[in-house]
Amino acid sequence: MKSIPRVILCATGLVSVSILFLITMPVEREANVVGWSYNTTRNTTNYIPVSGNWTASLAPERGVCDRPSLLVMMVCSAPANIEARQAIRDTWGSDKKIQGHNLSAYFLVGETNNISMQVFNVEASYLRSHQRCQV
Question: Looking at the record's lineage, which domain of life comes first (predicted)?
Answer without folding.
Answer: Eukaryota
